[in-house]
Amino acid sequence: MSTEQEQRQVTTNNQARTQEQLHDASLIEQLPDNSQRLHPDSIKVSRITVALVSFIIMLLPTIVALLSETYLIIAIGVTAGLIVFTIGFIWAKKSYDYTWYWLADEGLYIQRGVWWRKKTLVPFNRVQHTDVAQGPLDRKYKLGKLVTHTAGTRDASVSLEGILLETAHELRSVLQEEGESDAV
């Protein structure tokens, strides 16, 4: 191969690599070193919730069908419940895979989204107050939800579900301390 052909090959390879990088490059996919995932038990909580909702979706038409003796409704209800369960079961893991959070100098970042990705910043100086909440399943798995209320109207409250309760309290303390130190 001549030098000119080698240069063309290198140029072609570089262009292909650049096109790949442009295609794959997204600010939202570039995570800092201190980014953290939700707790893995959040997948279980989501799947149990989906199972309960699916059961109710199957149960209600069954009761109606038994009372009205229209048994086609049972098939429709069971089918709808199984569809909801299947989609929800898969979605719980996908949602976990695409949810990250991290603290930066300016505040708490939360990145989420399977299809439509969104990166939210909760600036320390905009935090009004924070809440930590738990549902019954969260308590069983020692998980919690951090809700941060900010000054402003758009996305005035931002929640982060599926983290350990202890982590939620730690994040709450950091947000409150940093928010107070940034106060005017």
Automatic annotation (TrEMBL):
Keywords on record: Membrane, Transmembrane, Transmembrane helix
This protein's name: Membrane-flanked domain protein
Residue stretches spanning the membrane: 45-65, 71-92
The species this protein was found in: Kangiella koreensis (strain DSM 16069 / JCM 12317 / KCTC 12182 / SW-125)
Pfam family, one: bPH_2
YdbS-like PH domain location: 98-173
